[in-house]
Specification:
Layout: E1 4-8, H1 13-22, E2 28-31, H2 48-63, E3 67-76, E4 83-84, H3 97-107, E5 118-128, E6 134-145, E7 161-163, H4 170-181, H5 183-196
Parallel strand pairs: 1-2, 1-3
Antiparallel strand pairs: 3-4, 3-5, 5-6, 6-7
Bound molecules: inosine 5'-triphosphate.
Length: about 200
């Protein structure tokens, strides 16, 4: 039996791996943009939903295919919910994931109490079809920011994020646990019915 296919509208390899593993049980194939003509992505704004839709729409329109995008971020209580949708750019250009983590730990130095270090990951996923079909879902994962980095799995802020109810960081818990509890896992679980509707590819 054939499968539907969807292009992952992301340039983040960590996200792409998670798209693949989270959707492995569905009858849909997740493809990367690697072998496709370059797609121009819109400038990102400050709303997860608008960003996710814009990324998916750009790919769906450029390729005439189904496209799946994720806009996500880390919201830290002590920082009034920042960096949020700006998480990928936190600390300015020139920083990589570990540079941003160091910057975050520095910003929280004066907030040692567990409560003030409360945080959540948020993820909004958007599925857009070649005919303009659209579905959106959201997921969150609550936790706190650790005092220092722990573990080397995952990506982004995983080494300093301890999910509620767990010992250790998301980067220590590894992909099997992350795929059960993450913001992205929850968003994809909600999007599953729409993903299952993607028609079987004709070529
Ligand atoms: P694309 O737009 O190409 O998908 P991006 O990394 O720029 O890639 P976002 O604008 O959605 O994507 O930024 C999300 C950032 O939030 C990401 O770069 C991480 O820093 C952080 N983040 C999101 N999900 C995360 C996760 O599961 N673990 C750790 N950090 C995460």
């Amino acid at each position: 039996m054939g499968r539907g296919r969807v292009f992952a509208a992301t340039s983040n390899p960590g996200k792409f791996e998670e798209f693949r593993s989270l959707l492995a049980g569905l009858s849909v194939e997740v493809l990367s943009l690697a072998d496709q003509p370059p797609v121009v992505f819109p400038e990102e704004g400050t709303e997860y939903e608008a960003n996710a839709v814009a990324k998916a729409r750009a790919v769906a329109e450029a390729l005439g295919e189904w496209a799946l995008a994720d806009d996500s971020g880390l919201e830290v209580d002590a920082l009034g919910g920042a960096p949020g949708p700006l998480s990928a750019r936190y600390g300015g250009p020139g920083l990589d994931d570990s540079g941003r983590v160091v910057r975050l730990l520095g910003a929280l130095e004066d907030f040692p109490q567990a409560q003030a270090r409360g945080a959540r990951f948020v993820c909004v996923v958007a599925l857009v079809g070649p005919g303009g079909e659209q579905a959106i879902a959201r997921g969150e994962c609550a936790g706190r920011i650790l005092a220092s980095v722990r573990g080397d799995e995952g990506f982004g802020y995983d080494p300093v994020f301890q999910p509620q109810g767990f010992e250790g960081s998301m980067a220590e818990l590894g992909p099997e646990v992350k795929d059960q509890i993450s913001h992205r896992a929850r968003a994809f679980a909600e999007l599953a019915p729409a993903l299952a509707e993607i028609p079987v590819a004709s070529d």
